């Protein structure tokens, strides 16, 4: 027994030496074989089990490594193997489990803190993640400092993009293309697109420079690394409205076939948004890229949500009603308070001509989620307007209390009521908005009796209300508004003039009293050179320069003033063949074709004889073409000076045009001989 134990110990020592040598060489597959042999000697060897887990992780067998940990829980306690277990769970996308494992560890090592930051980033807890990385950078000094700073900048970029947080200046030196890229993403989140584009161009240059230094890196490898930078450039172009340039760059990236399924999914989604309801066949091809395996682990929740929204819209555009309803219902169950799923469902119902059902759906959502009721009711009003129910649309708009006083809402309601000729309701809208501003001013002044000037929006509403009432003949109602405006600004001459004009129709005496407040004509006169103004280049009328007055002109100037000269009418020109003895044709002003005596153009001499039927047929009877009959009774010649002529409808042929008696009526056509090999037909 002692000899056997000694032999086992010697064998184990040799195996451990093999494990150590393979680990140093990075040959973890061979090291795993040696570890398994050690475990056959002692199955509960803690060190051997730890080595086995590490070898499996290095070989990418995370599921098997986690199985070993869970199988030997008594030996491999959380204190011993906490990092390896959490890392396996993280790589298997069990992020919540990884977080619990890290938090349950009794000692927080540097490795666990690094992993903790990654887990928080994946869980989109950016504030906690930022604090974790700041602590790591502050308390660590090793060769991984650059990577930590890169991760820190990525967190700041995510906050700017998804949470719309203005990023603070971390003072990071952008010496690498990763830092430049993350800085550009943060600028995109702030809407600084031009600055972001410059950062991306710099990142592309740094990326090419750093990768070109490695002789083993090919041009294809560099282009693959640049793909994500170019994708972000295309996104900026899309935001700037340069859709053609963006589309071209997106397609170039897809042709490279990058291995990053997340990048491909985002690019495909962006192409679909450019296509919209056009080029749907291309969109249906691109949507397959968004369904690739592992996409859900590469993108943020908002990115995945946006892709699902676009899938539902694409289904609607391609008339896949059931698919559209299924996707939008799934989205609504995931985010019950989100507006887009309900709006997509309503749009699909409208495409199916079910407007009433769409309005009911929106009303139910507005009742369940009052916080989003305003946007939903605006959509409902739009649907009512599309149906022609303008009054009902106005009622819906007026039910949005938080928007009743807004100038845009007041303008829309007044326009719609005016279209329906409901002037009383339009004035009521003005009155309610003005009262709201009065109450708001009273609340802000805390009941102070000191005169406070009204806000510009308040005064603008009062002026618009007064103008509207004046336009529709409500003089008495407009007077109170104009008096309020004049009280706010007594120097406003325009308002005073409107007030006097309104009072002149209601109370002329009051109008006279108010007219005394108008400035005098001397103060209102402008020093304008009338002659220079009239003779200016832009004047429509230029007065002629006065010439010397002589004789009779001077007498007229002194006596009666200027007298307009009478223009002489020119005599109209008469035609050359005009005969005053002959009465002019009363229809001479009409076109020739519209005159009563027009009989059409004279046809050619032989056109009457051309047959229009089948070949060989004639249009007139044979008796009329018989020359012997017409020759026996020649027509009489017209008398000299007479206006007689042959009728246009006559079929009689003059003697000069007659053919000899022996001539055939029609000339036979020679039939064309068909050539050998020629095809028949015309």
Structure, explained:
The chain has 682 residues and is mainly alpha-helical. The chain has 32 helices and no strands. Among the domains are: 9-107, Serine Threonine Protein Phosphatase 5, Tetratricopeptide repeat (Alpha Horseshoe), CATH 1.25.40; 416-517, Serine Threonine Protein Phosphatase 5, Tetratricopeptide repeat (Alpha Horseshoe). The chain has helices spanning 2-25, 28-41, 46-58, 62-71, 78-91, 95-104, 110-122, 126-139, 145-162, 177-190, 193-212, 219-239, 243-255, 261-275, 280-286, 295-298, 301-317, 321-334, 340-351, 355-368, 373-387, 390-398, 407-419, 423-445, 456-471, 475-488, 493-506, 508-515, 521-524, 530-534, 552-558, 627-632. The protein is elongated. The protein starts with a helix and ends in a 50-residue tail after the last helix. Mean pLDDT is 79; it is low at 1-5, 447-451 and 618-682.
Keywords:
682 residues, repeat, Serine Threonine Protein Phosphatase 5, Tetratricopeptide repeat, cytoplasm, 32 helices, disordered N terminus, endoplasmic reticulum, mainly alpha, 0% strand, disordered C terminus, elongated
């Amino acid at each position: 027994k002692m000899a056997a134990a000694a032999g086992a110990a010697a064998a184990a020592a040799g195996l451990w030496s093999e494990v150590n040598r393979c680990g140093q060489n990075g040959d973890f597959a061979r090291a795993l074989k040696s570890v398994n042999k050690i475990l056959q000697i002692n199955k509960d060897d803690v060190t051997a089990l730890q080595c086995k887990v590490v070898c499996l992780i290095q070989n990418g067998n995370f599921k098997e490594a986690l199985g070993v940990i869970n199988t030997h829980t008594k030996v491999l306690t959380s204190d011993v193997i906490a990092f390896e277990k959490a890392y396996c769970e993280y790589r298997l996308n069990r992020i919540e489990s990884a977080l619990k494992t890290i938090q349950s560890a009794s000692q927080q090592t540097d490795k666990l803190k690094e992993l903790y930051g990654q887990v928080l980033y994946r869980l989109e807890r950016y504030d906690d993640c930022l604090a974790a990385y700041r602590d790591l950078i502050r308390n660590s000094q090793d060769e991984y400092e650059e990577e930590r700073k890169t991760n820190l900048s990525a967190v700041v970029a995510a906050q700017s993009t998804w949470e719309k947080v203005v990023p603070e200046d971390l003072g990071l030196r952008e010496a690498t293309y990763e830092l430049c890229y993350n800085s550009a993403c943060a600028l995109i989140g702030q809407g600084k697109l031009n600055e972001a584009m410059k950062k991306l161009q710099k990142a592309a240059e740094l990326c090419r420079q750093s990768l070109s230094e490695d002789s083993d890196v090919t041009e294809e490898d560099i282009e693959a690394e640049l793909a994500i930078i170019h994708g972000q450039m295309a996104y900026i172009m899309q935001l700037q409205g340069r859709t053609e340039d963006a589309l071209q760059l997106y397609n170039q990236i897809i042709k490279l076939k990058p291995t990053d399924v997340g990048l491909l999914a985002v690019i495909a989604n962006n192409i679909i948004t450019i296509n919209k309801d056009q080029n749907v066949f291309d969109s249906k091809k691109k949507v397959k890229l968004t369904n690739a395996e592992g996409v859900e682990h590469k993108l943020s929740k908002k990115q995945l949500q946006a892709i699902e929204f676009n899938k539902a819209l694409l289904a609607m555009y391609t008339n896949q009603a059931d698919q559209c309803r299924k996707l939008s219902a799934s989205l609504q169950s995931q985010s019950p308070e989100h507006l887009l799923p309900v709006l997509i469902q309503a749009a699909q119902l409208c495409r199916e001509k079910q407007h009433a059902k769409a309005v009911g759906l929106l009303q139910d959502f507005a009742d369940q989620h009052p916080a989003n009721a305003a946007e939903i009711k605006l959509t409902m009003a739009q649907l009512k307007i599309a149906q022609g129910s303008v009054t009902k649309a106005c009622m819906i708009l007026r039910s949005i209390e938080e928007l009743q006083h807004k100038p845009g809402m007041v303008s829309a309601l007044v326009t719609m009521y005016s279209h329906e000729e409901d002037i009383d309701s339009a004035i009521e809208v003005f009155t309610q908005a003005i009262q709201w501003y009065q109450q708001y001013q009273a609340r802000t002044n805390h009941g102070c009796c000191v005169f406070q000037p009204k806000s510009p929006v308040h005064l603008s509403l009062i002026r618009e209300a007064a103008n509207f009432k004046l336009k529709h003949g409500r003089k008495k109602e407009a007077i109170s508004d104009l008096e309020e405006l004049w009280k706010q600004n007594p120097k406003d001459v325009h308002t005073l003039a409107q007030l006097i004009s309104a009072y002149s129709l209601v109370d002329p005496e009051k109008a006279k009293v108010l007219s005394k407040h108008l400035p005098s004509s001397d103060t209102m006169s402008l020093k304008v050179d009338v002659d220079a103004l009239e003779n200016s280049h832009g004047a429509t009328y230029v007065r002629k320069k006065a010439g010397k007055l002589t004789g009779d002109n001077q007498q007229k100037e002194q006596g009666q003033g200027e007298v307009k000269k009478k223009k002489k009418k020119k005599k109209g020109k008469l035609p050359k063949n005009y005969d005053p003895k002959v009465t002019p044709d009363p229809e001479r002003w009409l076109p020739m074709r519209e005159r009563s005596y027009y009989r059409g153009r004279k046809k050619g001499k032989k056109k009457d004889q051309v047959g229009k039927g089948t070949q060989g047929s004639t249009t007139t009877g044979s008796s009329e073409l018989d020359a012997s009959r017409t020759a026996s009774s020649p027509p009489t010649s017209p008398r000299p000076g007479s206006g007689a002529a042959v009728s246009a409808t006559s079929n009689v042929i003059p003697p000069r045009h007659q053919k000899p008696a022996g001539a055939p009526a029609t000339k036979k056509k020679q039939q064309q001989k068909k050539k050998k090999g020629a095809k028949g037909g015309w």
